[in-house]
Amino acid sequence: MSTSLDPVTLAVIQNGLQQVCAEMDVAFSRSAFSPVISETYDRSDGIYHRDGGALIAQGEDGLPVFVGTMQDCTAAVIERAKKVEPGDVFIVNDPYLGGTHLMDVKFVKPFFYKGELFCWLANTGHWPDIGGAVPGGFSASATESEQEGLRLPPVKLYKAGVLDDEILSIILSNIRIADQRIGDIKAQAAALTVGERRLTGMLERYGRDTVDDAIAELRRRAAQQMRAKIAAIPDGSYDSEAVVDSDGVVDAPLFIRLTMTKQGEELYFDFSRSSPPCEGPMNSVIATTRSSVYLAIKHIFPDIPINAGTFEPLHVADPDGTFLYARYPRPVSGCAAEVSQRIAEAVFAAMTKAVPDLLFAAPAGTSGNFSLGGLDPKTGRGFVCYLISGGGYGGHMGGDGLSNGCSTIGISKTTPIEVVEQRYPILYEEYALREGSGGAGKSRGGFGVRYKVRLRRGKARASFVMDHGRVGPQGALGGGDGAPNTVLVERGGETYTPLHLSKEQGIAIAEGDAITVETPGGGGYGDPRRRDPERCARDFRRSYYTADQIRERWGVVLAEDGSVDRAATQAERS
Amino acid sequence: MNGTTAGRLVGVDVGGTFTDLVCLDPSAPGGIRLAKVPTTVANQADGVLAALAAAGVEAGQVEQIVHGTTTTTNALLERKVARTGLITTRGFRDVLELGRRTRPTSYGLTGRFEPLIPRELRLEVAERVDADGEVLVPLDEAGVLAAVEALRTLGCESVVVHFLHSYANRAHERRAVELVRQAWPEAAVTAGSEILSEFREYERGTTAAVNAAVQPVLRRYLDRLAGGLAQQGYARELLVMQGNGGTVAAGLAADQAVNTVMSGPASGVIAAAYTATAAGFPNAITYDMGGTSSDVGLILDGLPRIHAELDLEYGMPIHVPMVDVHTIGAGGGSIARIDEAGLLRVGPESAGATPGPICYGRGGTEPTITDANLVLGRLDPDKLLAVDHPVTVDDVAAVIQARIGDPLGLSAEQAAAAILQIANDKMAGAVRMVSLARGHDPRDFALFAFGGAGPLHATALARELAIPHVVLPARPGITNAIGCVVADLRHDYVNTLNTPLSTLDIADVHRLFREQEAAGRATIEAEAVEVERIEARRSVDMQFQGQSHILSVALEHGEPSLESLEQRFAAAYWERFAVELPEIRPVLVNLHTAVLGKRRPVPLAALAGSDERQATAEAAIIGRRSVWFEGTGRVDTPVYRRERLPEEAAFAGPAIVAQFDATTVIEPGQSARLDRDGNLLVTVRVGEVR
Questions:
Q1: Which helix (DSSP H) or strand (DSSP E) does residue B374 occupy?
Q2: Which GO annotations describe the biological process of this protein (chain B) (predicted)?
Q3: What confidence category does residue B389 fall into, taking pLDDT thresholds of 50, 70 and 90?
Q4: B418/A190 touch (CB, cutoff 8 Å), yes or no
Q5: CB–CB of A390 and B345 under 8 A?
Q6: Local structure of B185: helix, strand or coil
Q7: CB of B347 within 8 A of CB of B329?
Q8: Is B300's pLDDT higher than 70?
């Protein structure tokens, strides 16, 4: 630590960097147009090192899946940028260059202080559409990148502060609902300007060298903090597995197989035994694979800061030859929303073996993406409606899992039923807690959701990209699995379950047809027979489970009036 | 006290630790009576009566008593609420349990949530209305009656009727409520759309559930208090503070009990708005720093910012119009520690009131912000209010040395200074975010600081935030009670239209505004409280089509035209986001009318009443001590006694201003002046900052 860097200055600069990110986050979401960014916070803002793009600080309110991806993407821009000047803003969404899916569009801006490049600012915003075969971009059956939408290599959208109308017109000519995009583009660029202004203030106050020293010191300390956490994990190798239902094209499960090795103060993640690359869009790009590991670790140790130092002791070997290291032109539209959550689940499962007290059984782990696109005859206008669903979280040492929690990689809120019904020609017949779905355990899993929507008029096409339809979220330490995801299509009076269970694209439906979705419950934690019978009786009173389920899964016998039959329970449990 | 009630006005506010009372009494010396007594947790009414006694006020001789209570807020946070049942649309009873699909924190997957109404008390009936208000399934009246019987058997005392899209068509909800009331007159009944006629089923339903759950609790409490006051001869209507910063007659308060949630912080901001505006600062950020947390509010053009998006805790949205107060996790009791990375952190953990800071001598062992202030000479070691067992400054310094100093290689004093700097930096950052998130730059505001610890940190915060003016009111420790005496009667009405301006029938807007105002006027008249005049403030919530954020736009008096709505929205949007979007259609989402019964102005100068005033500022100096300041280190600093300062006294920092329940720090280079109402106005040099 240099002499100019006293402990107060260091802490104040850390707080200041975090504040710059927080202000960019606020500026972006407050002025963004699409609800995906303004309401569901599917965005992130951060500060990256001038040499190589290493993460300096990232907003705590950003979407978790972006924790590790933006430094890779900034690195890709730095590598390709020939000449940069103040006011330039690169736009890029290439998944293979440090990305996720095409809908996640990054803006990357060099930040100059007194004429010299000091660092890079970048943000990601999920655009509601990026062209491609499916409105919204969540394809269930694309087999090459081009079907997924417009792919942008790093190009300067703003040159010295001026928006390039030609590039803009190429973009707007290739996406749906283009007329509203300009609002988001302006908001996304303006957020970086806010960051620039605040960072300048900070450099004026503390001096360039002091801030530089602080950044290096903070990185060193974050690594130290992460290592202190790792040191407490017993040395050893821990294997785990998680299953993706299918790739949406070939009806066969994809396996994520992880060997996590803890040695001293380092953690090694080896996914090399996972399934090979797949035909459909469930491949993951390497940046997303790494980021999924990072966000899983952050869920386990929420108080560690997010910067490049944190990631130093986490070693994710490149899983060459597996579906977790996709290269062009493998389709990847399912990686950010679904595969990422299975990777995190594998990390949770391995960690459960290492440090069970800190962990939780698997959460629902699917974004539950259901999109419906069509023409509303009443308004004469096209519409694209997305419903994203939550599910149960896993039980844990401290108690039962949360019901209807949002995806592992997200932090967003659902759109209210009343808003969906105002905007789209559909009617909910039910939106309910999915009874019986939480996995059994000393602490049971939380519950998924059961909803049924009916098309009121016209025709539409329905698509799903969900997961956990084949097996439910894993229980931990003897706990049972949560209930798997189900989809039921009611079309022309007949009902069927999609072949790929949780994935299907472009199902033509008409007035009166309905879709029922049941999202997964969370896994149970610990031996169900050690659950307090009174908790089971309460769960019965609330109709979370039937008396038969309570008896079967927990060995608790309830009397006619719902109270615990102690003697029978004792007999059942012994 | 003499035998008449003339002009005698009492504000009494119940806080977490103390119940504060202020009585404006022309017959008292200095025109004011004050009391601070311990809050009686089991029954707050006892503390209220004790405060009256302590101030020497006889209730029978008071013209008006205005009361701020935390009864409903506490009941919710502690879940000591009435057993409440729900009757709702078939298929949707779990809306209140499923929430908006979130989790309590971005990271960590072990959150918990319990809905206010457990599942077995949530019953469904057949009925359905769509988004246009059209009836798709008629109301099953027999089903409603069956649900009533079931809830009665299950031991409920309160019932919520909450139907989907009732904001668009209330007929089913109204009819169901009628049926419940007929079949079960003893039950408290809340209709979702009665409390909040806005779309968003989870928020509307939860708001209604909150109302129902606290209604019987508040009614019992107010009945008890009113009974106690009546015994003392108080014959007028008791007024109760609401979260919207206005008051309501006690007889009506329980009907909309949800409106009293968070009324304490609201009344602080109301007092601030009144005081700051009178002092010439109609735009102010309020900073109320207490033991465990601090509340931040915004005052724009003399009016507190109102919003309708409070989350009382995770999963408990309360969407009624309230004074927008944001709580940040830093207070005098915030704990300083060294984290795993070897960095000094302050908060969010707090020592609270028990064990409290080390210097309270109640067994606290972890250094806090208050302890740092003590070691640095900012607090007078002889005057610690809440001390039980004496602890010396050296004792406190030794702990700071061991816990913070040694790991960082600092002396005790340097460590205390580090705690203070980091705390101030963090609080300043939080205040900044609060104002930015609401679209304002803090530099355009004055800082109005109150609460036990607010004046101790205000000038440093202002310096950090580049705020040039700090206002410290005459009685920073009883600001909430003052809010009670200056607040107007207030009732808010919201209706959802959610219609693009292009298809809007402006006659509907005018009709709804008129109905809202008429409802407010009728309510105020029914309250039988003396008001000078009734005033209606209209605003609209608007958005561009496709957006989810709404922007609140205040309207002038008179009936708005479509053009004026469009223009005002465009102007407000530009001011807020610096973006023009002529391509996209504006939508009118909500109509809002606040109807205010303006009460007689209160003479603020009376609050500063003191019989100790000296001729000069110098004569108010009661001692000197060595105080640490950022940039200069220890400086020999005069200590002024606030009650002795003459009107218009002017002096320069460094200075400490001590008074009964607060200490103000004025930094070197800053200057202070006492205005006619007894406010201390501090000018902060902000040139070199940011």
A1: helix B369-375
A2: glutathione metabolic process
A3: low
A4: no
A5: no
A6: coil
A7: yes
A8: yes
* A488 close to A497: Cβ distance less than 8 angstroms: yes
Beta bridge partners of B297: B286, B325
pTM given for the model: 0.92
Question: What pLDDT is stored for residue B690 in this prediction?
Answer: 37
Number of domains comprising chain B: 4
On whether the CB atoms of residues B290 and B386 are closer than 8 A, the answer is no
Mean pLDDT of chain A: 94
Chain B nearest-CA residue for A385: B546
Question: How many interface pairs between A and B have CB atoms less than 8 angstroms apart?
Answer: 206
Residue B113 lies in a domain: yes
Q: What is the pLDDT of residue B31?
A: 81
Task: Scan for tokens 């202080």, then name that residue.
Answer: A113
- B559 and B668: one domain? no
Q: How confident is the model at residue A358 (pLDDT cuts 50, 70, 90)?
A: very high
CA–CA separation, A325 and A347 (whole Å): 17
Structure tokens that stand for B596 in this block: 């205010």
B504 and B567 inside one domain: yes
B535 min Cα distance to partner chain A (Å): 32
Between CA A129 and CA A102 the distance in angstroms is 9
Q: Does A306 touch chain B (CB under 8 A)?
A: no
B525 plus B623 within the same structural domain: no
What is the helix, strand, coil percentage profile of chain B, to 5?
35, 25, 35
**Domain span including residue B586:** 490-598
Neighbours of A499 (CB within 10 A): 10
User: Does residue A541 belong to the interface with chain B, where contact is any CB pair within 8 Å?
Assistant: yes
Q: Is B676 within a domain?
A: yes
Q: Which structure tokens are listed for B507? A: 């006659």
Residues B170-174, mean pLDDT to the nearest whole number: 96
SS3 content of chain A, % helix, strand, coil (to 5): 30, 25, 45
Residues in chain B: 690
Does the pLDDT value for residue B644 go beyond 80? yes
Q: How far is CA B347 from CA A456, B175, B285, in A?
A: 53, 51, 22
| Cα radius of gyration rounded to whole Å, chain A | 24
Strand partners, A405: A391
Rounded Cα distance between A47 and A49, Å, is 7
Q: Which two tokens stand for residue A221?
A: 């300390």
Q: Is B247 within the bounds of a domain?
A: no
What is the phi/psi pair of residue B343, to 5°?
A: -100, 145
Question: What do you get for the CA distance between the two ends of chain B, in Å?
Answer: 54
Q: Which residues contact A116 (CB under 8 A, 6 or more apart)?
A: none
pLDDT of residue B16: 79
Q: Which residue of A has its CA nearest to B404?
A: A7
Residue A313 token pair? 């002791």
Count CA within 13 A, CB hemisphere, residue A404.
26
Cβ neighbourhood burial of A353 (10 Å; 0-12, 13-18, 19+): middle
Q: Which of B304, B321, B162, B312 is nearest to B256 (CA)?
A: B321
DSSP run (H or E) holding B497? strand B489-500
With an 8 Å Cβ cutoff, is A358 touching chain B? no
d(CA A40, CA A63): 9
Given B538, B571, B598, which residue is the final one in a domain? Answer: B598
- The Cα of A276 is separated from the nearest Cα of chain B by a number of Å equal to 30
Closest partner CB to A23 (pick from B436, B547, B548): B436
Distance CA B459, CA B666 (A): 6
**CA distance linking residue B74 with residue B605, whole number of Å:** 33
pLDDT at A408 over 60: yes
How far does B373 lie from chain A, in Å, by closest CA?
A: 16
CB distance A391 to A522 below 8 Å: yes
Q: Judge if B170 and B97 occupy the same domain.
A: yes
Sequential DSSP letters for A493-559 = TEEE--TTSSEEEEEEEETT-EEEEEPPPPPPBS-GGGS-HHHHHHHHHTTSS-HHHHHHHH---B-
